[in-house]
Amino acid sequence: MLLVLCIDLDDDLGRKTGIDTPVIGRDAVVDAAVALASNDPEDSDVNVLFEGVHIYDDITDEPVEVAAVTGVDGSDVAANRAVGEEVDTVLASLAASEDVRALLVTDGAQDESVVPVIRSRVQIDGVRRVVVRQAQNLESMYYTIKQVLDDPETRGTILVPLGILLLIYPLTIAVEALGYPGSALGVMSGLLGLYILARGLGAEKILDEAVERTTAGLYAGRVTIITYVVAAALLAIGGVSGVQELERQTDPDALEVIASLVSGAIQWFAAAGITSSLGRVTDEYLDGSFRWRYLNAPFYVLSIALVLHAVSAFFLGVQDLEYLAIMLTGGTLLGLVSTLGFAVAEARFDRAEQHNQGPGGPSSE
Where does the sequence pass through the membrane (predicted)? Predict the structure, then answer.
């Protein structure tokens, strides 16, 4: 037996006419098509219903039935599920002893996305697409564009550069009105270059993960969010301080430029590193997963800061050798002592945990 199935994935038939679906039988499908055409003559599903009836009338060499099934408007997943349930209802109503095969009638690629759902229930002999002759591929093109725009990755890849290019002309007018001709093209070229570089390096994934971690931290009330904000402010202050220190030098060479930047910024950078490290240590302690090795980071930052301060001061010649030797030695010893001290504390902590947990095997008498 051949079942001619007219597919209406977005339920235009039910929404516009109020007819209950599925619609089974030639006369019922004709009545549904007339009702839909009366309410919306431009709806392409009218052609689908009449084409199903036309195929039904043409087949005379085997048993045939025609039915119309619909989905729901909105979600494709929900629509596919609804179509599957209505196909089950149609198959149950046939009660045919012979095998049932289906011929699908659709109005474009969007309705044909339900083919795998129907194939899981009944064998499909073919798909007949019905479109208006003067717009042969219009709906397929619309559905393809719609799918491309619904995909976040494709949307970002296509629309963002296109949007930047379209902004060049209005930005050029705005910049010229402000008296800076020629700057707009450079700004837009830079933005486009940064976007392409970020896409190539996968920076959007890193940014998405950072935003997700930040959001989760805000909801969980984590201390690190506050300390990271403070650390970012300290880093900004350190950068300004480094530039100011560089401006005080007269005709510096390459080493003096680096030393000036380090000398002006190192104390602020060290403060930022210690602040962020202490925030993490606090969160680990509040979560009950504190380990002594987590305290290494603030001391490492401080020891590195002392060493870099001594080296930069040496190249700038702002301190005597005795002071530089004390700073360099102090920073090195601080790093070594903190490493050894916290390693010993960690080992004792592990032994205490093992002792509290007791032996893992069964006890012997």
Answer: 156-174, 180-198, 219-237, 257-278, 299-317, 323-345
- The reported pTM is 0.41
Residues, the chain: 365
Task: Tell the residue number behind the tokens 């064998």, with chain if given.
Answer: 123
Token pair of 320 as six digits: 């005597």
Please, how many CA atoms are within 13 Å of residue 268, restricted to the half-sphere of its CB? 18
**Distance, CA of 46 to CA of 62 (rounded, Å):** 26
Q: Which residues contact 191 (CB under 8 A, 6 or more apart)?
A: 164
Query: Do 88 and 121 touch, CB atoms closer than 8 A?
Result: yes
Question: Count of CB atoms within 10 A of residue 175's CB?
Answer: 17
Q: Which residues pair with 128 in a beta bridge?
A: 105
pLDDT higher than 90, residue 50: yes
CA distance 303 to 110: 64
> 223-247 and 203-220 helices cross at what angle (nearest 10)?
130
Q: Which two tokens stand for residue 64?
A: 């045939």
Digit-coded pLDDT (tens) for 130-185: 876 555 566 667 666 766 666 666 666 677 777 777 777 777 777 677 666 556 56
pLDDT of residue 140: 66
pLDDT tens-digit profile of 263-288? 888 888 888 888 877 777 777 776 66
Rounded CA-CA distance 140/131 in Å is 10
> What percent of the chain lies above the pLDDT cut of 70?
67
What is the crossing angle of helices 296-316 and 254-287, to 10°? Answer: 170
What are 23's strand-pairing partners?
Answer: 68
Q: Which pLDDT score is estimated for 364?
A: 39
